[in-house]
Amino acid sequence: VGEFEHIAKIRRxxxxxxxxxxxxxxxxxxxxxxxxxxxxxEFALSTDTIVEGVHFRLDYFSYYQVGVKxxxxxxxxxxxxxxxxxxxxxxxxxxxxxxESALEDLASGLIDTCEKYGCPLLGGDLTxxxxxxxxxxxxxxKLPAGTAIRRSTARPGDEIWVTGSPGDxxxxxxxxxxxxxxxxxxxxxxxxxxxxLHEPVPRLAEARLLRNYGLATAxxxxxxxxxxxxxxxxxxxxxxxxxxxxxxPVSEFxxxxxxxxxxxxxxxxxxxxxxxxxxxxxxxxxxxxxLAGLRKKSHTSFTLIGRITDKIGELxxxxxxxxxxxxxxxxxxxxxxxxxxxxxxxx
Amino acid sequence: VGEFEHIAKIRRxxxxxxxxxxxxxxxxxxxxxxxxxxxxxEFALSTDTIVEGVHFRLDYFSYYQVGVKxxxxxxxxxxxxxxxxxxxxxxxxxxxxxxESALEDLASGLIDTCEKYGCPLLGGDLTxxxxxxxxxxxxxxKLPAGTAIRRSTARPGDEIWVTGSPGDxxxxxxxxxxxxxxxxxxxxxxxxxxxxLHEPVPRLAEARLLRNYGLATAxxxxxxxxxxxxxxxxxxxxxxxxxxxxxxPVSEFxxxxxxxxxxxxxxxxxxxxxxxxxxxxxxxxxxxxxLAGLRKKSHTSFTLIGRITDKIGELxxxxxxxxxxxxxxxxxxxxxxxxxxxxxxxx
Lengths: 347, 347
Prior knowledge:
The structure is a homodimer. Chain A is α+β, with helices and mostly antiparallel strands. Chain A is built from ten helices and 13 strands. In chain A, the strands form two sheets. A seven-stranded mixed β-sheet of chain A has the order 8-10-7-11-9-12-13, sandwiched between helices. Chain A has a six-stranded mixed β-sheet with strand order 1-2-3-6-4-5. In chain A, helix 2 (63-81) packs parallel to helix 6. The first copy, chain A, is globular, with a radius of gyration of 20 Å. At the A-B interface, helix 1, strand 2, strand 3, strand 4 and helix 3 of A face helix 1, strand 2, strand 3, strand 4 and helix 3 of B.
């Protein structure tokens, strides 16, 4: 049983036994839950864990970067609902044998990142752990009641858009993992490229623009790859999707790493997450009208990559030659065996 | 450097870099942080981690009980501020080699406990971990603005009260740890006693009564023992305390286990936590007037155990013969070496 099946089972358990009270507007199953805060606001909350050896390795992540990544990954869930950060809580289990400075570096990475995005650290829990390092960050955001952008509200005919060039973080990871093994091709990684993995930027500003312009019908942040995360929208919304193979915003870097590994150019975009770009759906031509403004105000690219269809559960890609291919819907799955996953770090 | 010093350092870092925004009413340093929710309410939030081999062992905790304990420990932080539960988020890192049923049992324990206390599970994150099992639960509670009972508001002259008989969970743990080693005395543990460790009861009802009667001037839940947790109140409030040695509500069971281990009768009450009783301060004679009602409505005992003094930082105990002794202020400290801690499981 894979992670997603486990989560589905737990969700069913939780839904069976819990009825939302007056305060609960949305429970398990989206990037955040929603809780009423007064008459006209809602709080959005999400919790996100990163584990040494699963989400990062300490031989190419500094403790500071672990703190940055843990905070950014959690804050990205607020962006995915278009919520404004309010604050965060962190729980860290760290080895007793870790250097004196390790915990301070990690805390500095956490606190700096929380501060940078207006999501100050308001509490936490610290535990000695035999191993490995585990950091869980819970974020609290707020937004006007009823304005959260959910996964479940995409409609057939909607356009599918992404910010930036998803897959870059996974491409960096592939390079670092190959270098680590001491074999295979070793393309250069610039500092800017490495930052895509080590210090991802939650797309809060982009989400705010989308909310203000009323553009997104559904949204998610890309943590497991376009295929897996788009599929979450499809399952929640009861739709299918067709991706335009020639329009995917694959960076030159990501394409080159994929080529060196004999993978398709779009491999990391489809199956590698962790750069936390946004994927959203929008009514036809709606984004186009605001595209110049979106790009100018956010300094981020927005790319139309496909269309929502009424073929429930079908995720396909149309190639330049017109051929339709089914896309495997999985991304990185912590509970699957290494040979069936797409990411090097799972082995 | 011990855990408490680490936390103090992180707190200073966080305080230096973060200014509470309009929404943040209370940051790091109490059982919960407080965030404004509309004009007349506040949300209280806390995060709590339990780690295999540190907070529990799987040879005398079932997965179900781990779930119960993780949820109860977190919900207890809401009781400590006298907040009403709204919902919870759980992050679990579990070994890939754990049995198929383990995760479901753990989730059931979590979900049942959250449901039991009106704190439904609203979201979560699930990760494969090489080892050990780590469960982090974040709880959200609410209360009328300004009514949270903090640690920092005890005043010299206030009475010090506790609910129930703190230390029972630590006594059970001592019995189980001794049985585990295959040596030492093995007193019988009844199911009811064992439940004090395995399925602690967050004192929500008692906290609600204290809030409604306006009785508590400061409050904390006892997770590390009366000595360490009372000391948190003393440090936050800038006071000292004198405990009445002949009035401590040590259960017969806890006294007997301590005796068998050649420890003082009050050892587990002072230095063992995890049964999550409440410790609170109150104006003179204030509780006495409501004592019958408190006991009848909550079915829990309330015991006067001491007095807040103006001797800043001094924690003393007065013995039956009138002798004053200083009390060591430490409880269980995850970052200290085994020989300096008071709990068996730390070794």
